[in-house]
Structure formats: structure tokens, C-alpha cells
Amino acid sequence: MSKHILHVVTNVAHYDDPSHATGLWLSELSHAWDVFAARRFEQSLVSPRGGRAPLEPRALKWPLLDASARGWLNDPARMALLSTTARPDDIDPETFDAIYFTGGHGVMWDFPHSAGIQAITRNLWERGGIVSAVCHGYCGLLNTRLSNGSLLVAGRKITGFSWTEEILAGVAKEMPYNAEAQMKARGAHYDKAFLPFVPHVVADGRLITGQNPASAKATARRISDLL
Fold first, then answer.
1. Distance CA 227, CA 225 (A)
2. Under CATH, what is the fold of the domain 4-226?
3. CA dist 175 to 16, 33, 106, 151, 169, Å?
4. Are the beta carbons of 112 and 137 closer than 8 angstroms?
5. What is the pLDDT at residue 69?
6. How far apart are CA 125 and CA 122, in angstroms?
7. Which ranges carry the DJ-1/PfpI domain (predicted)?
8. Residue 134 to residue 100: CA distance in whole angstroms
């Protein structure tokens, strides 16, 4: 029986400043999708509100727009998936084997507060499924609690976009919070690569996280191998 992956994408199209556009970092979805497709896994998309998932403009320019991401942009069927994502209430978590939180700065606003996404994550984790994230996607795990009331990330090894990378990207002053610091405050054992922007994956049992956009393929491969 084929494994089924649920990709979580943002609905947020801009920073607090409406003139500063953001959204899904497309390659973080496309790279993982390619890895899972090669394994012939089933794949679905969900977002906190359902419907359109906007794209981060910075990720659609050279040299960040690679062949994988261009493949999505040039495929009407795949772009349609990003305009018609499911709502959490549409999802039966019992049918999924893994959840994968994509990034892009938009997720910092809507991922942490989605009770529906948290419920899916809790169900999947407590059934023995894989919970994973790449880059800012780990913001979706900040407030996820298990049935016993404990935070899923407490006491677990994790990575995600670092504060150093926010500074180097030139956007630290526009962040609604420091995600790295918030993870540490919740008792997570945060880890990052010695150098910024290089691939880095941390696996703590069924919790698998990648630090930045360059980590998406490696994260997906670890998920695939565990499945």
C-alpha cells in the first residue's frame, strides 16, 4: 500500500507591512514532492484556511528558482493544487503516514495558531506517524500539544531557519518573533549547521526537520527512508 504525505502550506501573502509580499517558498515544496513522487507516495496539500497558497517572490528569481520549482510554475495542474488547497476540516488524518510543513516567511503568521493543523499533527504523531518540517515550517510545531497536554517539541531535537539566517537574509527586523528562540523557550533542543544556508537535517525518532531551503531534499529523503 502506498504511503500518503500531507504537505502544509501557508495562506499568508505578506508581512505585517502589506507592501512586502511573502508566501510559500516553492522549492521547499517542489523538492520534497519530487522525492516523494519518485517513491510513488500519494501526496496532498492543506493550509490553515484552505484555498490559495501564495508564493514567496524572492524564491521565484535566479538563482533560487531551479528546475524543480520552474516545473511547478510551468505546470497548470500543479499550480491549480496551490489555488485549491484543502482546509483542515477536509482532512482525515487517519489516511496519512506523514505530515510535512513547508516554509516561507508567511507560515510564521498562520501556522502556529491553526488549531485544525495542530489536531491533524497530534493525531498523526500519536498513531505513530512522521511529523516533519523544513525551514520556517517548524513554526507549525511551536504550539502543538499532545493529548496529555505536553508540547510535542519539548525535550526533542529540532532544527529550522536560524536567527542568524534571518539576519543575513536582511529580514530580521520584520519578523513577528524569533522562531529559534521560541523553540528553545518551549524546551526543544535546537540545533543548526556551523555555516548558514547549507543543508542540515535533524532526526529525533519520528520527528524530522530541515534547517533551510537547501535542506528540503535531504529532509524528504530521511522521511522516505523512515517510511
1. 5
2. Rossmann fold (3.40.50)
3. 9, 28, 10, 23, 11
4. no
5. 96
6. 5
7. 85-223
8. 8
Q: 180, 130 in Cβ contact below 8 A?
A: no
Residue 67: half-sphere exposure toward Cβ, Cα within 13 Å? 1
- Which are the contacts of 119, defined by CB distance < 8 A and separation ≥ 6? 88, 93
> From the CB of residue 168, how many other CB atoms can be counted at a distance below 10 Å?
12
Whether the CB-CB separation of 24 and 32 falls below 8 Å is answered with no
How far apart CA 166 and CA 168 sit, in angstroms, is 6
- Residues 137, 222: Cα–Cα separation, whole Å: 16
Q: Which position has the grid cell 507549525?
A: 140
Pairing of strands 157-158, 189-190: parallel
Cβ contacts of residue 42 below 8 Å, gap of 6+?
2, 3, 4, 5
Give mean pLDDT in consecutive 10-residue pieces for the chain, a chain of 227 residues.
Answer: 94 96 98 98 98 97 92 96 98 98 98 98 98 98 98 98 97 97 98 97 98 98 97
Provide the grid cell at 135: 525551514
